[in-house]
Amino acid sequence: MGELVTDPFSLFDAWFAEARASEPNDANAMALATADAQGRPSVRMVLLKGHGPDGFVFYTNRESRKAGELAANAHVALLFHWKSLRRQIRIEGPVSLATDAESDAYFASRSRDSQLGAWASDQSRPLADRETFEARFEEVKARFEGQDVPRPPFWGGYRVTPERIEFWQDRAHRLHERRLFTWIDDPGSVSGAGAWTEGLLYP
Ligand SMILES: Cc1cc2nc3c(=O)[nH]c(=O)nc-3n(C[C@H](O)[C@H](O)[C@H](O)COP(=O)(O)O)c2cc1C
Q: Quick one: pLDDT at residue 203?
C-alpha cells in the first residue's frame, strides 16, 4: 500500500481508479449491509454512482426491502472487494436521502430502458410471474411514449456518510495491511466539524 495519503478519500480514489482499470466489469459494485429494527442483518449488491468527502451514493427503489430497513435503522455498512487486486474497502456510517435534484440528474442520465424498468419494478415484492413484469414494462413504455421518462416518486438515491473506512490489502505470509480511518467530531461542534484519524490494524 504505502501511499502517502492522510485522508481516506484520496486513497479511495486511487484504489477505485486502479479497480476501474483492472476489473473486467462493475468495479463500482459494492455489498450494502442493512439491519432491521430488531438488528437482523441483510446484504445485497448495489452500484456506487457518486462519491466524495460528502459520502457514497447509490440508487434504488425507496419502497424496497432495503429501503424499509433504512427507514427503521439508518446505519449501514458497504463493502468493496476487488478480487484480482486482493483488496477490500469497508465503509460504515448512517444514510440519508440524496436530494431530489441529485436523484433527478442521475435518473435522467440512465438509459430509457432502465428508466422504464424503474417504473415497472415493484422491487422486493413478489410477482406472480416474469410475464406480469414484462407486461408492466410494456404498459409503462406505452404510457411514456414520445416524452421524457420522469423519475418515479418511489425511486432515488441514498448517501452514506462515512464514519469509518478501512482499507485492506493482501500481503505475503498473511501479514495483511489494514489502514483504518475514523471520523472524530470536534468536541461541542454543531456544524459537523471534525477530522479523520488514522491507525493501523493488525491482521
Ligand atoms: C452487481 C449488482 C449490482 C446491483 N446494483 C443495484 C443498484 O444499484 N440498485 C438496486 O436497487 N439494486 C441493485 N442490484 C440488485 C440488488 O442486489 C437487489 O437484488 C435489489 O436491490 C433488491 O434488494 P432488497 O430486496 O434488499 O431491497 C444489483 C445487483 C448486482 C448483482
A: 66
